[in-house]
Specification:
Blueprint lengths: L10 H8 L10 H14 L8 H8 L3 H13 L3 E4 L3 E4 L3 E4 L17 E10 L4 H7 L6 E11 L2 E12 L1 H4 L9 H8 L4 E13 L2 H7 L6 E11 L4 E10 L3 E4 L7
Helix pairs in contact: 2-4, 3-4
Length: 257
């Protein structure tokens, strides 16, 4: 009997071998999870979720729907109780194609976000911040850390590194935790937008978890903007750590010609 060496099995082959025979068109828990999660996050209001209705809406089996709801509940996007049934948690949608102070994050739709200052201090001019903000000369960096709140619910943490000229740094009084409003109030500049925006995902460390009320290791969204003034000079590095179960980003993508 001749034997042939067994090589590594291709991922798509393993996927097909272990795939359960679907009794509906979209009986993949992964696909159903992504589809339902995106639908819930694009909705402005909390809504009741009924298994029977979801089987048709997702074209998935009841077992798949139940597994998806369990995973969404674990992620904090769904609440389940015998008396109240299954409901989606309300998600705050932030527009990332527009720069605005925190209090105006919702644009025309008020979402009642605000900042609560935690700490601020001058740092001299750290090399990494100097490089990111393209600072030349005797600039001073002011670090401001705040909690992002909505109706006293903590949505995340904001750390801003604000560039101050020698004149601006003399006797500086931090009476505004929002970097945009602070600069426009104290530095006589207007922030026109973000030179670059970076979005990523990170795990909550012990301090972040304690501040925002999640478990250590819970997924968080990372949003960074390099804020620049009307002359194109970067003036602040703004970094958010946001709860992924309460925040979703929204933008309008345009296909380039």
């Amino acid at each position: 009997m001749t034997t042939h060496p067994v090589g590594p099995v291709r991922p798509e082959t393993l996927y097909q071998r272990h795939r359960q025979t679907p009794d509906r068109l979209n009986n993949s828990m992964r696909r159903a999870y992504d589809l339902l999660r995106s639908s819930l996050q694009s909705s402005c209001e909390s809504q009741y979720l009924v298994e029977g209705e979801l089987t048709g809406a997702l074209s998935a089996s009841r077992n798949t729907v139940r597994a998806v709801l369990q995973l969404l509940a674990k992620d904090g996007l769904v609440t389940r109780s015998p008396k109240r049934g299954t409901r989606s948690a309300r998600v705050t949608t932030l527009r990332i194609n527009h720069i605005a102070p925190v209090e105006a994050f919702g644009g025309e739709r008020a979402i009642h976000t605000q900042l609560r200052a935690l700490e601020y201090q001058t740092l001299g001019c750290p090399g990494l911040v100097r490089e990111r903000l393209q600072l030349v000369g005797d600039w001073t960096v002011l670090m401001m850390e705040s909690l992002l709140l909505q109706h006293e619910m903590v949505l995340g943490i904001l750390v801003s590194y604000v560039a101050l000229s020698p004149e601006e740094s003399r006797g500086v009084v931090v009476d505004e935790p929002d970097a945009i409003l602070f600069l426009e109030k104290h530095s006589d500049v207007r922030i026109r937008g973000s030179k670059s925006t970076t979005i990523g995902a990170i795990a909550a460390d012990e301090q972040s978890a304690w501040l925002v009320g999640v478990e250590v290791g819970a997924p968080m969204l990372f949003l960074e903007d390099v804020l620049e003034d009307e002359q194109g000079q970067p003036r602040a590095l703004s970094q958010f750590r946001l709860r992924s179960d309460l925040i979703a980003f929204q933008t309008h993508a345009v296909r380039s010609t």
